[in-house]
Design a protein that fits this description.
The complex is a heterodimer. By secondary structure, chain A is an alpha+beta fold. In chain A, 35% of the residues lie in helices and 29% in strands. In chain A, strand 15 and strand 16 form a beta hairpin. The chains are: A alpha+beta, B alpha+beta. Chains A and B meet through helix 1, strand 4, helix 13, helix 14 and strand 15 of A and helix 15, helix 16, strand 11, helix 34 and strand 22 of B. Chain B: Keywords: Cilium biogenesis/degradation, Cytoplasm, Developmental protein. Chain B: Belongs to the inturned family.
Chain lengths: 419, 939
């Protein structure tokens, strides 16, 4: 990435719906936060057209130019979010979900009350500053895909049951039901209750932990956008190993000081080796030595009911294309497949017009071949839906087109016990 | 006069047959028994010259849209004898009609004498005389009455509607402002401010145009009053906006009132151009009915309530001018579009602001209106903005984008530029009509057009989503010898060296050079000598006016269309860069479309250049029209051969999805197992009923009608002539025509399929078993040649192949699809087209990026390395599973058929697109299929 001009920039605008006062603007360019801002007149007119439509009971939802997409969304009649993106392969689906996540992030850190009853705009602006880090990480290139899929990014630890046991025991001792182990933004293991967290927070909490600067321990007040948007909870994090953090969500008790080193040692000292084994899992997601076909350059496995996903672009060495590019390709393929072909994921109210007409015709698989006419260039993408699981693969060009589905079926079969 | 164009053709097919054989002389005509010929000879005595019947329909600006239905069609369209046939007319109107007539006369073509000469030589087809419209000076409306009695009119000009009104009910809401009574009493909404824009004031008050109907009002309840109609009389008392309130206030109590309306289409045009073109426009209005069936009423209501709008706005704001001045054009004027019109500020702002921020043009935006998603497509040219808004449910966004491009292209083709189309007052009614047709097509794709079989209709509706957006014309591949014949006919026509037209003969410059022509048969392109861009322009024009389906049934007695056009490749401004390059002569271009029976020929003419320069608005020239007509008549001999081609089995054989519906027991492994397994499974069953197996297999190339005993014994049979005795078929007709057999075959297979389905669900259509062995090698060869898919079975369900260099595409014909029938298959086809639309959207994105890349490479060699740019998408496929819709058996899972929809894009050597749909049992390689399909695909 890193183009000149306006290409590849994302602008996110947040305005108070009633007054039209901009609360914040964030931009990112080529995947990194940027200082470049839209002129105020543009912000004003972008908000103006939306507001004007609303007065006439016409909801403006999106607009497209040849390379840019703009999406408007207002939340609770008090906050209007506008995103303007000229990233390659951007789509409305991606931007709509981004806005949902951004609003979720705002609620997570500020609380719904503050956002719906804006009494003091200046104070709100100040409070929202806390969420910039999280929002910027949502806007930019991330190794995770939870913002798009709305599923929790997970990894598969080699000795999961041991870790699970230790986690449950620790959580019980600490007096909370919500606990998880997070390695660079991905959940390794979590308690039952943690998995039952609602959609935005289940994705956002690990994301938040991953986006914060490293610290030995934190006590962070959070609202749960779905579970308790008005009553704050505490997010406690304890760094077990560099990059590997233990997260707890709890009420006023226990205080952080109570989680003394003794408690930690008792539960986690014996687990040191399995924990160490988790560390390299961050980008790889799958345990080392998991048999994957060598043609597979990237993999995204979703479990639509559990709302968890495995996402990796590094199953096999460093061939062309670069990991960033692979992620980008898989992300846009996911968008295409979800927005156009496959039925919407359960539990989402995005109603698409085509679905009603397509009921008896159920899409099961999908592939896409790109590259120039000469052989050996480009890549192949294949998606497979089977029950609640959906697998997307990025494959190298040497993989034959007619074998794509077979390969995907076999891979899905092999991955099924993992997720 | 108003509908004269449609009341003509009393020509019998025999008469037309007679035309093509000049040796047949007039004296045999009376024996024909057809009264027309009699009238022809009797009337001809009054005339020293025979004018073509369309001559009166030529408008002031030279345009002509003349459609005459064939005999049979007319009868089917005849309205029931009108119940009340009362017509009001004033002196005023008769005078108008008279004007009409005279103006029409003025447009005698310069070369009319040629016609005379040709006539005298009997080189031109004989024509019956239109006695009704011509023999006695000005035509009066009363004349029309006589017409109606004979039942030839398609549309009445006036209609009487009886409604019950009750003035007692509205004591409270006594009329406060003008025209209130009309609204509350009758339920007709008339808005004064609207009508002056279009209609202009007439002496004695404004005409009472129906602008809306009050829900539940008497007028709406009657179901006969439509928006656009004009109320001319109440209980035979003439009314205008001036006296309507007075007249209505005289109604003492509840009573039945007779309202006389002038029909919408008749009025619209007349109002705009009071002295001209009633004929033509009425015809167009009827065309809508003709194409969309008679029950426009109900569907119109539906269309009215669907938000849809077309707006032409200017971005240049003049503070001097009054309100709404930025709207240059707006259609329709219904309530549903008002909302979209009222938020035009959004569109204007977005268009301007986003372009300045992003540097690229706005293409579309989406709105939510009453919970319904509306997509609005933008088309910006200089400082004007064309907008089309349609609900996403009916028109997916990729389709809408193609549509607006089509609209802009067609309007430019017709009027030269969007400005001319929208801003010239005299074009307004015509553009209205254009968009009326446009929205009909967009929102009511399933409108049946009379007579077509439901299967073909469904197919038409389902495929329009994709096919209407393709930059190509639907082509019918023909065998070489027919092609040569058609080519010769067109070349002869284009050469224009017929003696009477040669320059030497008359010592004057010819009027037009024929640039090229193309020939359509039943809506399929069979032959074209037009450059690609022109061909597409012409085809899109024809599509918009619904001319292509018109010819599919034998409904055209005679069609003559003439208009000035502005083809994009000829009308480009000259480039200064290369002075030596070829410059198009600064000519004017005219499109002549002549239709006759199933044939339709489009001819592009150039005036200027080497022909004489056109002056004013020349009307169609008889010589050219007649020459095209003659060419068509000459082709009559080919007619049945083309038709045979059309109806014979398709070149790549198709299968019906229903044949592949596996039983539920196979559902689990149907994804992975190959049909060989099932073949083994069922082989014992199959032996019991070999003929069924054969028909079930469904490959028409294999249906060689061998008697079953010989087949099961394994001896190669020479097939074909063996008759149908072997099968259980009751059709043992001695009809040896191949076509007939084909038809029988399909019927039979359909029937058999049903029987077998009931009998045993185990019987599997895949079983070729020993059948394959029995095939002689020669047969196998044919069989392979006609099959697109690999593997032992024919698994191809559907295909579309687009060749952009020639601007053509091929896809199975309506007949093919209708023949396949099935219950799942139509759904599959519908889904195929929808899916292809999405696939094509991906391809279009790729093509755009490629174009951009090519541009940037030309600019500076180091193109930026974006993620997707160096790797264009070239193939995209989706696997679907489908099952019968209403599966009654609750215990068993419904059978499932899995099929792929695959799109493949070829960028080099030329841009080609291929979309195929095939069963999942065999892995297909799209490139191979494409090679087979595109091989030899040349015009």
């Amino acid at each position: 990435m890193g183009e000149e001009g306006t290409e590849g920039t994302v602008h996110l605008l947040c305005l108070a719906a009633s007054s039209g006062v901009p609360l914040f603007c964030r931009s990112s360019r080529g995947g990194a936060p940027a200082r470049q801002q839209l002129p105020f007149s543009v912000i004003g007119s972008l908000n103006g057209v939306h507001m004007f439509g609303q007065n006439l009971e016409v909801q403006l939802s999106s607009a497209r130019t040849e390379d840019t997409t703009v999406v408007w969304k207002s939340f609770h009649d008090s906050i209007t979010l506008i995103v303007l993106s000229s990233e390659a392969g951007t789509s409305e689906l991606r931007l709509e979900r981004l806005l949902q996540m951004v609003f979720g992030a705002m609620v997570l850190l500020v609380g719904l009350e503050e956002l719906t009853n804006i009494s003091n705009i200046e104070r709100l602006k100040k409070e929202l500053r806390a969420s910039y880090g999280l929002i910027d990480s949502l806007l930019g290139d991330s190794e995770l895909i939870g913002d798009l899929t709305q599923c929790v990014d997970c990894v598969v630890p080699p000795e999961g049951s041991l870790l699970q046991e230790a986690l449950s025991g620790f959580a019980e001792a600490a007096g909370t039901n919500f606990a998880s182990l997070v390695v660079s933004g991905r959940v390794v293991v979590a308690t039952e209750s943690w998995w039952r967290l609602g959609t935005p927070e289940a994705v956002l909490l690990p994301w938040l932990v991953g986006s914060l600067p490293p610290q030995a321990a934190r006590d962070y007040p959070v609202y749960l956008p779905h579970g308790s948007p008005t009553v704050p909870h505490r997010l406690l994090t304890l760094t077990l190993l560099p990059g590997l953090e233990l997260c707890l969500v709890c009420g006023p008790r226990p205080p952080l000081s109570q989680l003394d080193p003794q408690l930690l040692e008792r539960w986690w000292q014996p687990m040191l080796d399995p924990l160490r084994a988790c560390l390299p899992l961050g980008p790889r997601a799958l345990p080392a030595g998991f048999p994957l076909h060598t043609d597979i350059l990237g993999l995204l496995l979703l479990h639509l009911e559990l709302k968890r996903c495995l996402f990796t672009v590094e199953p096999s060495g460093d061939k062309d294309p670069s990991p960033e590019q692979r992620r980008c390709v898989l992300r846009s393929f996911y968008t295409l497949v979800t927005a156009v072909h496959f039925p919407p994921e359960p539990g989402q109210q995005e109603d698409k017009a085509e679905d009603a007409a397509q009921q008896p015709q159920v899409p099961k698989a999908c592939y896409l071949v790109s590259g120039t006419e000469e052989p050996g260039t480009g890549w192949r993408l294949v998606a497979l839906q089977s029950g609640p699981r959906r697998l997307l693969l990025l494959l190298s060009a040497q993989s034959p087109v007619h074998g794509l589905r077979g390969l995907a079926t076999r891979t899905l079969h092999a991955l099924t016990p993992l997720l | 006069m108003a509908t004269a164009a449609l009341c003509g053709s009393r020509q019998s097919p025999e008469g037309l047959l007679g035309d093509s054989s000049p040796q047949e002389d007039e004296d045999c005509d009376p024996e024909d028994g057809d009264s027309d010929w009699g009238s022809y000879s009797s009337a001809s005595s009054d005339y020293d010259d025979l004018e073509p019947e369309w001559l009166d329909s030529v408008q002031k600006n030279g345009e002509l849209f003349y459609l005459e239905l064939s005999e049979g069609e007319e009868e089917s369209l005849l309205p029931e004898p009108p119940v009340v046939n009362h017509v009001r007319f004033s002196e005023n109107e008769i005078i108008i009609e008279e004007d009409d007539y005279r103006e029409g006369k003025k447009y005698e073509p310069k070369l009319k004498r040629f016609t005379k000469i040709l006539k005298s030589k009997r080189l031109l087809p004989k024509r019956h005389n239109k006695k009704n419209s011509k023999d006695s000076g000005p035509v009066s409306i009363l004349k029309h009455q006589s017409h109606q009695k004979t039942g030839v009119l398609v549309q009445q000009r006036y209609k009487d509607v009886s409604v019950c009104v009750n003035p007692k009910k509205l004591t409270v809401t006594k009329a406060k402002e003008q025209l209130k009574l009309l609204e509350v009493l009758v339920g007709v909404i008339h808005q004064t401010k609207w009508s002056w824009r279009r209609a202009g004031k007439q002496a004695g008050g404004e005409r009472l145009v129906v602008h809306g109907l009050l829900p539940g009002g008497p007028a709406m309840k009657s179901g006969q009053v439509f928006i656009g109609d004009v109320l001319v009389a109440v209980n035979d008392v003439d009314v205008t906006s001036e006296n309507i309130e007075r007249v209505l206030s005289c109604i003492p109590g509840p009573m039945q009132v007779k309202l006389t309306f002038e029909n919408a289409y008749a009025v619209k045009k007349e109002a705009a151009q009071p002295t001209q073109k009633k004929v033509q426009l009425n015809t167009e209005g009827d065309l809508v009915k003709l194409l969309w069936g008679e029950e426009v009423g109900g569907s119109e209501q539906k269309v009215l309530h669907t938000p849809h709008v077309v707006l032409y706005l200017t971005l240049e704001l003049d503070s001097e001018t009054s309100k709404e001045e930025e709207i240059l054009y707006h259609y329709p004027a219904s309530d549903a579009s008002q909302k979209l019109k009222s938020v035009r500020g959004i569109f204007l702002t977005l268009c301007d602001m986003l372009e300045s921020v992003t540097g690229t043009r706005v293409t579309s935006s989406s709105l939510l209106l009453n919970g319904k998603q509306i997509n609005v497509a933008y088309w910006k040219e200089s400082d004007k903005l064309l907008l089309i808004g349609l609900p996403a449910e009916e028109v997916p966004l990729p389709q809408l984008r193609n549509m607006i491009e089509d609209v802009a292209q067609t309007l430019k083709f017709m009027y030269g530029s969007l400005d001319r189309a929208f801003c010239q007052a005299e074009n307004a009614p015509r553009v209205d009509h254009f968009f009326e047709l446009f929205f009909q097509r967009a929102l009511l794709p399933a409108r049946p057009h009379g007579g077509a079989s439901p299967g073909a209709q469904q197919y038409e509706a389902a495929s329009a989503v994709l096919l209407d957006g393709l930059p190509g014309v639907r082509w019918l591949p023909l065998p070489q010898e027919i092609k040569v014949e058609l080519d010769t006919a067109l070349s002869d026509l284009e050469a224009a060296d017929f003696a009477e037209l040669s320059e030497d003969y008359h010592d004057m410059r010819r009027l037009y050079t024929i640039l090229g022509s193309s020939l359509f048969y039943k809506g399929y392109l069979t032959c074209s000598h037009l450059p690609k861009d022109d061909l597409i322009d012409v085809a899109v024009y024809c599509r918009h006016y619904g001319l292509l389906p018109l010819a599919a049934k034998q409904r055209v007695g005679q069609l003559v269309i003439w208009r000035e056009v502005f083809p994009r490749c000829h009308c480009r401004p000259p480039t200064d860069s290369d002075p030596d390059a070829f410059q198009e002569p600064e000519g004017r271009y005219f499109l002549l479309i002549v239709g006759w029976r199933h044939f339709m020929s489009c001819v592009l003419l150039e005036a200027g250049g080497c022909a004489s320069t056109a002056v004013g608005n020349p009307g169609p020239d008889c010589v050219y029209v007649d020459q095209v007509k003659t060419a068509l008549h000459q082709l009559q001999a080919v007619d049945c051969r083309i038709n045979e081609q059309l109806e014979s089995s398709p070149s790549p054989c198709l299968s019906c999805a229903d044949w592949f519906l596996a039983g539920s027991h196979e559902k689990l492994d149907c994804l992975t197992t190959s049909p060989i397994l099932s073949k083994l499974q069922g082989s014992s069953k199959v032996a019991t009923s070999p003929p069924c197996r054969r028909t079930l297999f469904g490959d028409y190339s294999l249906k060689t009608r061998k008697p079953s005993p010989s087949r099961s014994s394994g001896g190669p049979d020479d097939g074909g002539e063996g008759g149908e005795g072997g099968g259980p078929s009751p059709h043992t007709t001695p009809d040896t025509e191949r076509k007939q057999r084909e038809a029988d075959g399909s019927e039979e297979s359909g029937a058999l399929l049903k029987v077998i389905k009931k009998k045993s669900a185990l019987l599997n259509p895949f079983h070729v078993g020993n059948l394959k062995k029995d095939l002689s090698e020669k047969e196998l060869e044919i069989y392979n040649a006609m099959k697109l898919t690999s593997g032992p079975e024919n698994t191809l369900f559907h295909y579309v192949a687009l060749e952009t260099v020639q601007g053509i595409f091929i896809t199975p014909t309506h007949e093919d699809v209708a023949r396949l029938g099935g219950s799942v298959h139509p759904e599959l086809i519908k889904n195929f087209h929808r899916c292809c639309l999405s696939i094509r959207a991906v391809f279009q994105q790729t093509l755009m990026e490629e174009k951009k890349k090519a541009g940037s490479v030309a600019d500076h060699s180091d193109s930026t390395d974006s993620a997707s740019a160096p790797n264009p998408v070239k193939e995209h496929g989706v696997l679907f599973e489908c099952s019968p819709e209403n599966w009654a058996d609750q215990k068993k899972a419904p059978p499932v058929v899995a099929y792929w929809v695959v799109g493949r894009l070829f960028l080099c050597p030329k841009v080609q697109e291929l979309y195929v749909c095939f069963h999942d049992s065999v892995t297909e390689i799209a490139i191979e299929m494409a090679f087979k399909l595109f091989f030899g695909l040349t015009l």
